[in-house]
Amino acid sequence: MSAAHVYKRDHINTDEIIPARYLNTDDEAELAKHCLEDLDKDFVNKVQAGDIIVAGEDFGCGSSREHAVWAIRGAGVQTVIAKSFARIFFRNAINNGFYVIESHDGLEKINDGDELEIDYKTGLIKNKTAGVDIEFNPLPDFALEIINDGGLLNHITKRTTD
Amino acid sequence: MGMTLTEKILAKAADKEKVTPGQLIDANIDIVMCVDVTTPPAISMLAEKGLDKVFDREKIVVTPDHFQPAKDIKSAELHKRLDEWAKRHKIKYYYKLGRAGVCHALLPEQGHIRPGEVIVGPDSHTCTYGAFAAFGTGVGSTDAAAAIATGQLWFKVPASEKIVLNGPLGPGVYSKDVILAVIARIGVDGALYKAMEFVGPALAEMSMESRMTITNMAIEAGAKNGIIAFDDVTKQYLDEHLKDKTDYTVYESDEDAEYIGVEEFDCSAIEPMVALPPLPSGGVPVTDCAGKEMDQVYIGSCTNGRIEDLRIAAKILRGKQAAIRTIVVPATPTIWKQAKDEGLFDIFYDAGCVIAAPTCGACLGGFMGVLAAGEKCISTTNRNFVGRMGHPKSEVYLASPATAAASAVEGKLTDPRDHL
Ligand code: SF4
């Protein structure tokens, strides 16, 4: 089961996702313990493997710290659905093979705790609790290629050995 | 249809005649900038994938800065990883110990930024380098790893937005006030994914230091890069700072280049600004918020920790007493020495300020000036997000060095024009 954690806010920034006081490590499990700490202290206690974060515009703005993606992934989050993403966060997600979804309707049609099922290929979010379907544009091909290869570095290794 | 300055640099980096916004390119990277928090993960990733190599040991510039010198055991271990890697690969430009400084102040000062080049670094304010008619953009650790190993990265060519800065700045108004006014108008995602090209007569009057304050904060409007065309001021700075490689190519935007938008600003109408927490777009004239009590003043960072900034602050603090905790952090060792030699340290000392060694430190809530719950800090840095400089219940107010220094004297948000 994948539950939604909805934050009706724009500009959720990297300082809120993983505060700099924890940047003295790059250990994903360690970072995960503080995921979203300055936004929602309770998040790490609530989140279950496979859950989904839903938010507004410009998610992940601020610093270039990839630690933000690692903290979210480390906490077991399957994907983030946002109205839009900050540029570096979006890039970092793809480079880590972490699929993120840009959806303008997500925030309106998903409530906190709703159970979601996502078809990444066709671009469909099924909100099973509310009984509504939400379409989204799947990531462009080049991004899918990187994600399917398991991230940018694997992608590069593959390209150079092909 | 012509090309913008940003498009021309990217076309050249991708070995193409022409690029257009939205196009995906593989660009050759001229400089990879490496710092302590985000580069060690890149190094480890490369080792893990069996890619432990550098594309060019002379095109990678390394400095620990965020937690420099190490603030605790874990950051010491990050520094150790960075140090071992830099030595193993014989990185030519490795600034450490007494030569380490805040990256975006250090690289231009040490002559590593040239017009027409592509500079990336795992730090979002890498856009600072656009002040030199270069393409600088912040990336994550994985991108940095790829750039270090291959000297190439994929980019989507950004559309350019023109920001026209007209009119002379009034007394007590600085480039920091201009960029805070720009971001207050267009918003923290007003330039998302775009290139912000700054033009106009107000720029011609500005030093390179002042221009860097503007491009530094392009990311605070969501931009991919900020850029300013080359002129005599740029040339003079480069003549004084470039060392090993002194040749470069100057590109200019074509007359018929296409812009996705144009925003005009009358700089003569801009007042000293304060960006209220929790977003850099919270800028209001200081006259709207003057009198609010502060607990700390922070003068430093890649935005406003350069010699010009310290001179402005010292001029206001001369012969006065700081009423609240005031921390001055010269951004690089050269700036530190200059400030000392010019007697600025005497002024800061007499005023009761703390003078620290170059580091990012408290700018990101790291160390040396971290805030307690409920504390308020007026800071010359670039971000005032929740918890940015310490406790999530502390607050950061962004301003120019002049406004920060005047506020130090009064202990509350203060119009610097009363102290000129
Ligand atoms: S001074 Fe602050 S904004 Fe600049 S690089 Fe350091 S932490 Fe980042």
Query: Segments of chain A where pLDDT lies below 50 for 5+ residues?
Result: none
- Which compounds are bound in this model? iron/sulfur cluster
Spatial gap, N to C terminus of chain A? 38 Å
Helix vs. strand class of chain A:
alpha/beta
Measured by DSSP, the beta-strand proportion of chain A falls in 15-25%
Q: How much strand content do the residues of chain B show?
A: 15-25%
Question: Any overview of this molecule?
Answer:
Chain A has a single domain, classed as Alpha-Beta Barrel (Aconitase, domain 4). Chain A is built from 8 helices and 7 strands; from the N terminus they run E-H-H-H-E-H-E-H-E-H-E-E-E-H-H. Chain A has helices at residues 14-17, 28-32, 43-46, 67-74, 87-95, 106-109, 141-148, 152-161, and strands at 4-7, 52-55, 79-82, 101-102, 116-119, 124-127, 132-135. In chain A, the strands form 2 sheets. Chain A has a 4-stranded parallel β-sheet, with no helix packed on it. A 3-stranded antiparallel β-sheet of chain A has the order 5-6-7, with no helix packed on it. In chain A, strand 2 (52-55), helix 4 and strand 3 form a beta-alpha-beta unit. Chain A starts with a strand and ends with a helix. With 420 residues, chain B is α/β, with parallel strands linked by helices. Chain B has 2 domains: 5-265, 2-Layer Sandwich (Aconitase, domain 3); 273-419, Aconitase, domain 3. In chain B, the strands form 5 sheets. A 5-stranded parallel β-sheet of chain B has the order 4-3-2-5-6, with helices on one face. In chain B, strand 3 (60-62), helix 3 and strand 4 (93-94) form a beta-alpha-beta unit. In chain B, helix 2 (39-48) packs across helix 5 and helix 12 crosses helix 14. Chain A binds chain B through residues 10-11, 13, 15-16, 19-21, 23-26, 37-39, 57-58, 61-67, 69, 84, 86-88, 91-92, 95-96, 142, 151-154, 156-157, and chain B through 24, 37-38, 40-41, 44-46, 49-51, 66-67, 71-72, 74-75, 78, 122-124, 126, 138-143, 145-146, 149-150, 154, 188-189, 192-193, 222, 224, 279, 364-366, 370, 383, 385-388, 392. The structure holds iron/sulfur cluster (SF4). The site of iron/sulfur cluster has 14 residues of chain B, from helix 4 and helix 11. Iron/sulfur cluster binds next to helix 4 and helix 11 of chain B.
